[in-house]
Amino acid sequence: MQEGDAIESRAGGCGCVGSRVEPDAAKSFVPSHYHITEVGRLQKDFIDCGGTIRSLASCLLQIWVADDTDHRLQTSKLATIMDVAGAVLKSDELPVEVEYEEGVISQYPVAGVEATPAGLLFYLGTKHTACLAPDKCGVDGGGCC
User: Fold this and answer.
1) In Å, how far from its chain's centre is CA 119?
2) Reduced to 3 states, what is the DSSP secondary structure of residue 116?
3) I need a labelling partner for 70 at 20 to 30 A (CA). Which of 47, 53, 104, 131 fits?
4) How much is the pTM?
5) Residue 28, Cβ neighbours under 10 Å: how many?
6) Considering its fold, how many domains does the chain have in total?
7) 33 in a domain, yes or no?
8) Residue 119 exposed, middle or buried by CB count within 10 Å (0-12, 13-18, 19+)
9) Is 68 helix (H, G, I), strand (E, B) or coil?
């Protein structure tokens, strides 16, 4: 990332971290003075409605925007934060999600990264709920659980 990077969310379900604000009304950016307040490993162990035990792990970057509009997260600072977080993350193969509050707290999986002259753009996807065992619980034939 470059100094002054921002997070963008698109109405179509994608978003980016980038250093420019596009005039397109279908896009909105997190202000460039955001902070990364947490880097963590999330572990979710659960049983789905079909009785299968499942486990998911991810790296979560929490983004927060304060009133200090002169703040900019330098690339070197983010690299240092990620190096320190390595002890908690325990793997560099985890999927990455961004947590951001804009009215409600939401988590966005990082769906892709693009190198641009202005810096790196991180495209954010969306998360959805679904039945994980439709063959076992009959969701196609009349309902789940």
Assistant:
1) 18
2) strand
3) 104
4) 0.72
5) 15
6) 1
7) yes
8) buried
9) coil
